Structure formats: C-alpha cells, structure tokens
Amino acid sequence: MHELTVSPWASLAYLVAGVCFILALRGLSSPASSQRGNRFGIIGMTIAVVTTLVTHVPLRSEAWPPGNPHDWMIDWTTVVEILAAIGVGAAIGLVTARRIAMTAMPQLVAAFHSLVGLAAVLVGVAAYLNPQAFGISDLVVPLIGQPFAVIHPVSRIELGLGVAIGAITFSGSVIAFLKLNGNMGGKPIMLPGRHVINLALLAAILGLIAYFVTDQSAWIFWTIVILSFVIGFLLIVPIGGADMPVVVSMLNSYSGWAAAAMGFTLHNSAMIITGALVGSSGAILSYIMCRAMNRSFISVIAGGFGTSDAGAGSGGSAVDRPWKRGSAEDAAFLMSQAEQVIIVPGYGMAVAQAQHVLREMGDKLKAEGVRVKYAIHPVAGRMPGHMNVLLAEANVPYDDVFELEDINSEFAQTDVAFVIGANDVTNPAAKTDKTSPIYGMPVLDVEKAKTVLFIKRSMGGVGYAGVDNELFYRDNTMMLLADAKKMVEDIVKALD
Amino acid sequence: MDFIAILSIFVLACFVGYFVVWAVTPALHTPLMAVTNAISSVIIVGALIAAAAAGIGAGSGVAKALGLLAVVLASINIFGGFAVTARMLAMYKKKERPVAPAASK
C-alpha cells in the first residue's frame, strides 16, 4: 500500500524500550536491585507494544481498488481480535507462572523458548506472505494480471535467517523440554552419521538462503523453514539429559538472534537491541556452563556424552571396595558437634524435593550454634542458577549461599561437608585421575573437610559421567543410603 | 533507518549485552534466563504489524491469522515470563538480623 514510514516518535519510543530492557538486565547484578530491574523490563515491553498498536491501527476500506485515504476507517473487528489474542496469551502465561513448581523451571524455560521460536517463524511467514505491510518490498503492477510484491534482496537474507533460527529454536526447545520433563529419556540418542547429516542440512539451509536472494519462490522459502525444523530436532536429540544447562542456554541465545534478525527485517531498534542482549546472555551462560564442566562447547553440542541420569542399575563400580555406612543419628550427632557445616546440593535434591526439609535441618543446626553454608557448583542442576532458586524458594537466605570460587577454600577448615544429590561435582578424581572422563573439571573440594556425609539412594549406579565417585571410598566419608528427603527428615528428628 | 545505522545499534548493543550479562550474579542466572526469554518476546511487535495489516492478494488473510497466533504465543511469554521472574526474585531474602536496630533500607 505504501512505503513503511516509521515516525520519529515511534523510533524514539522503541529506543526507550530497548534502554529499559538493558536496565532490566542490569538490575540482576544483585538480589537487592533485581525486582526494580524486572519492573523496567515490564515498562519497556509496555512501551513497545503500545507504540506498535498506536502506529498500526487496523484499517479497512469499502472501496475497491482502495486509493483515496478518506475511504479508510478503523477495522474494529481486528482491533478486538488483537486485544483478545493478547488477553488469551496473558491468561495462559499468568496462570502458568503462578502454578509452576520451581523444580520444573528448566522445562518451563525450554517451553517458553519454543514459543518465541515459533512466534519468530510465524512472523517471518507473515512477512513473506504480506511483505508490503512490513515495508520490505516493492509493488510491481504488470499490465496484465495481479500486482505482486518483490521483496528487497537484503530483506530476503534477514527474513531467511530469522525463520531459520526461529525454527531451530522451536524444534530444539521442544526436544529439550521433553528431555527435561522426563517425557523423553535422558540418554543421548545417536543416529549413525549424524555429524554428516547435520552439516549437510546446515549447508543446505545457508545455500538456500543465499539462493533466495535471487529467487523468492515459495518452495525455497518453505524448504528453508522445514529443513530448519529438522536440524533443530536432530541437533538436540543426541545430547544427554544433564548437558541440558548448556542446551537451554544455547537455545536462549538463538531466540535472541531470531528476534534480532526480525528486527533487522523490520528496521526496529527495540527488537535489535533486545536480540543482541538476549543473544549475548545465552552465549555467555553457555560459555560459563562449558567452562564449569571443562568441556568445549562443540563437544557438548556434538552430543553422545553421558549415561542416563537415573544412574541406577548396571554396575559402574567394578571392584568391591570398602566404604563406611552411616545412619541419620550418626549424621545428626556429627553435625551438631561441628563448628561449620557446608551443604552441597545437586540435582538429586531437586528430584527428591528435599529443599524445604534441608532448610529445616539447617535452621536446627544454626540453633545449636553451628555455622551453616551452602556450596553451589555452576552446573549443579539442569539449568544455570537452578539450585539457588530452589534454596531461595525454601527460604534459605541468599547470603548463606556461595559459588564454587568463593567457598572452595573453606572446605579444609570445615568439620562436615553434607552432599545431597550432587555426584560428579564432588569427585576428587577430576583433579587426580587423568584417565577419567571428568578430568580437569572444576569440582568442589569436599574431601578436604574433616568428615563427608554423602546421601545416595544406593551404592549401585554411577553419576552422569558414568564414573564411580572416588569420594565414597575415602576414610572420612560416611554414606547415608536412603531417599534424600527421607534421610534429611530423619536427621531433623534426630536433632531434636 | 538505513542498514549501517541499524547495524551500528546492533553491534553496540552486543557490547552492552556482554558487559551487562557478565555483571549478573550467578545466584540470579535462572531469573536471567526467564527475563531474557520475556524480553525476546518483543517479537510481538512484528506479530502486531502482521495482524493489523490490510493487504492485497491471497496471502494477506493468512498473514493476519498467523500474526494473531504469534500475538498469542508472544503474549504467553511476555506475561508468563515477567510474572515467573517476579515470583522468583521475591523469594531471595537476606539473613534476618537477630536483634533489629531500626535501620531502614
């Protein structure tokens, strides 16, 4: 209908929205400023949405062909449809946010990423079908036949990238969700020749995007979309369940780049700024996770690492080595006599939903004058920072919770290290055994404590990396074999 | 805006993103993922444009329907994302001082 002219006021508003998003992330530098930061995020989004609604009021015309501006009037039906769509989404979103258990946060984040990916694809398809509305094409009116729109070459690249990244984000996030939610086994599923297939698909997608510049036929566009869905699925399927922190961060990053690509297509600074922020955020989190596992990003994405995270059954401990067993009463006694106890939580604590009784145990110990601290390894859990959220939910004050770098030196002066639900991150073999698959990974120095209490359901079974934990067989380690929640409840009773 | 202008904004925003995200404390990495997911739903801008657009040709009706669907999906993320982030952030509390001198924050 007309070239897309964005009024300067709208551009300014989008810039303000982008700045609000920067401030939202800045607020996360500490819990004290974080809630204010979240409010900035909400303000920024409101500005962006209202600006768009006000500058793109749906219009319709009775006259055909529509030429005279006076023929156009507000299309109230569409206005209602749009507001209803926002309302439906808001209702679903708010209800989900209120009811989701904190232990299900990884799956929720994966599910949300899939929605962003799909939305990006839908917007891309809409832009392809109606490019004039987005101002990315020139209208060609032939002498005979219908007028048609020719999409600008640069817009075709941006559009192609946007739908490709969006589609990968969608299908990859769906698989991540299924793995995290337990619908799909955590074991890596490996197709033969998968590296070749994936690289071939990637080459095909990039090649088609380049070809799309010369020929905007529908088959090219749709093939790009379909191949992208496929590669998203194929990329994530071979990655093991406990590597999901890296996968979810990576998909977080991709959802940002998809938004940025759409931002380039629409010349919208809010989307571009947001895309850059989210893209870098995901990339940095992926890097932190990989560094904490001492594995390269490529090796994680290549997949095939890791046993099933249930870890039960088939024997990993080949040799029958002596180990010490303890009871809840032993544990209660040892800890109540201690000056300092460091608790090391892991994914097992989340699975057993033991965070609340754990905090009760911590409170009882504090009442007896014991100093209680919590040590978090960066990749404990299935998502960056997951343990911190679970402890916060259980009302553990955040200044009792420490990251690996800050607390590792304290284990040597600690009387008791209490390990619940963590395994590979406490294995001293990572420091000493060059043949171990986890060699070189930064671990918590729990073995330096005077006594180590380790909660595990049974002695059989290995951690995610498929190795037996050297910690179990040390003289100062006492194994507490029971369900995590039950064991902690028994300890709480014994402390009375 | 021309391509170089938006490219400049993008490049600078990437740098800003790098420094801002490194400053996020590890304890808040999960809320970080939740809030970045919420703001990436600013793609709703594109969805609203598609849904509101009148158009010529057969494609525009489908484009509008897809736009409305994208509005629903993005709205779920926006409202859900900010709400779940707020819920998480409210859980983080400091140790309570045992004897409270009336020092207000």
TrEMBL record, chain B:
GO terms for molecular function: NADP binding; proton-translocating NAD(P)+ transhydrogenase activity. It comes from the Bacteria. It catalyses: NAD(+) + NADPH + H(+)(in) = NADH + NADP(+) + H(+)(out). The keyword NAD applies. Residues 7-94 form the NAD(P) transhydrogenase alpha subunit C-terminal domain. Pfam families: PNTB_4TM. The transhydrogenation between NADH and NADP is coupled to respiration and ATP hydrolysis and functions as a proton pump across the membrane. This is proton-translocating NAD(P)(+) transhydrogenase. It comes from Sphingomonas faeni. The lineage of its organism: Bacteria, Pseudomonadati, Pseudomonadota, Alphaproteobacteria, Sphingomonadales.
